[in-house]
Amino acid sequence: EEDANKIKPEYVKSFLHVSKLMPSTWIVIRIDGCHFHRFSDVHEFEKPNDARALNLMNSCAVSVLEEFKDIVFSYGVSDEYSFVLKKESQLYQRRSSEIVSAVVSLFSSMYTMKWKEFFPQKELKHPPYFDGRAVCYPTSEILLDYLAWRQVDCHINNQYNTCFWMLVKSGKSKSEAQNYLKGTQAQEKHELLTRLSGIIDYYNTLPLMFRQGSSVFWDKQEEEEIANQGKDAVGKCYKVVVDLCNIIEKSFWEAHPEILG
Ligand code: ATP
Ligand code: ATP
Ligand code: MG
Ligand code: MG
Ligand code: MG
Ligand code: MG
Ligand code: MG
Predict the structure, then answer these.
(1) Relative to the alpha carbon of 101, which ligand is closest?
(2) Does 3 map to a domain?
(3) Which cellular component terms (GO) are annotated to the entry (predicted)?
(4) CA–CA separation, 96 vs 99, rounded Å?
């Protein structure tokens, strides 16, 4: 009798703790590749930045936005992507574990499915996987601070990695390069790059995608494109775009008021 009670659904379900994300806040899901240092070695990514790998990440992000319509904006760099869900989103009744797991799982599947498109000559040697977390931001100001933080991080890491790999390619060992860069300020790194490359302001000649990361969002389609597709041109036509934007500057958000609504 007692044993039978234990398998009643109410009893089993009573252990379930449903964690819901705070209502009326921006939800950010940040995913990050697991052990991508190794993954990028195994698959011989170009260092410090493999454009194919970044374009693959961007393409996966486009698929995520197309699937989860409540995601209004996303920003990616290296092996990470941040997805912003609109404040009112009721996706999975805002249950954190469902939202995070669905985004991470779709992203990982797309990465595997699209691999050949971006690395036609390279076999996928082991399955890529990602972890994810959800954080709520109560105001759009704080959300923009979060995104600015990621873009600043992109710049700092990229400047370091560019120096590191230039030292390595000039003949230093990895630990020598690391010691050499220990404690250097941004200005010193800038000068080091100019000296090693022989190009003034070398850093700023690098592709914008490496220096600024990538943004993926729903953007208004050009009227011309809408006309070409034979739809009526009453403005309400959006598509997911990949763009290289400065999201720290307020001007980007002022130019795209529909993103944050
Ligand atoms: P963890 O599992 O803790 O996230 P990780 O090895 O993935 O560890 P990260 O801090 O996430 O470490 O850094 C990702 C690493 O993946 C980078 O340091 C870099 O070596 C590599 N990487 C990711 N994307 C690229 C790319 N486009 N080009 C070259 N290397 C890349
Ligand atoms: P949700 O996204 O809400 O989970 P769902 O379509 O995945 O919706 P579930 O309640 O999870 O619905 O049910 C899974 C459905 O997938 C089943 O109803 C069945 O139609 C189908 N399905 C799953 N596994 C099998 C299988 N091995 N053979 C046949 N059908 C299957
Ligand atoms: Mg990680
Ligand atoms: Mg990682
Ligand atoms: Mg990372
Ligand atoms: Mg389900
Ligand atoms: Mg199901």
Answers:
(1) 6
(2) no
(3) nucleoplasm
(4) 5
20 vs 3 pLDDT, higher one: 20
Tally of structural domains, the chain: 1
Q: Is 40 near ligand 1, meaning CB less than 6 Å away?
A: yes
Q: Are 23 and 136 in contact (CB under 8 A)?
A: no
Whether 13 is covered by a domain: the verdict is no
Does ligand 1 come within 6 angstroms of the Cβ of 47? yes
Of the bound ligands, which one is closest to the alpha carbon of residue 131? 3
C-beta separation of 84 from 64 below 8 A:
no
CA of 128 to the centre of ligand 4 (A): 11
Q: Which domain holds residue 239?
A: 26-260
Q: Domain for residue 134, yes or no?
A: yes
At 3 the pLDDT is 73
Ligand 1 contact via 78 beta carbon (within 6 Å): yes
Residue identifier of the C-alpha nearest atom 19 of ligand 1:
37
- Find the CATH number of the domain harbouring 169: 3.30.70.3000
Residue 245 is assigned to a structural domain of this protein: yes
Query: Is residue 45 within 6 Å of ligand 1 at its C-beta?
Result: yes
pLDDT in tens, 184-210: 999 999 999 999 999 999 999 999 999
CA distance 229 to 223: 10
Residue 231 pLDDT greater than 70, yes or no: no
Angstrom CA distances, 149 to 38, 76, 144, 211, stand at 26, 12, 8, 14
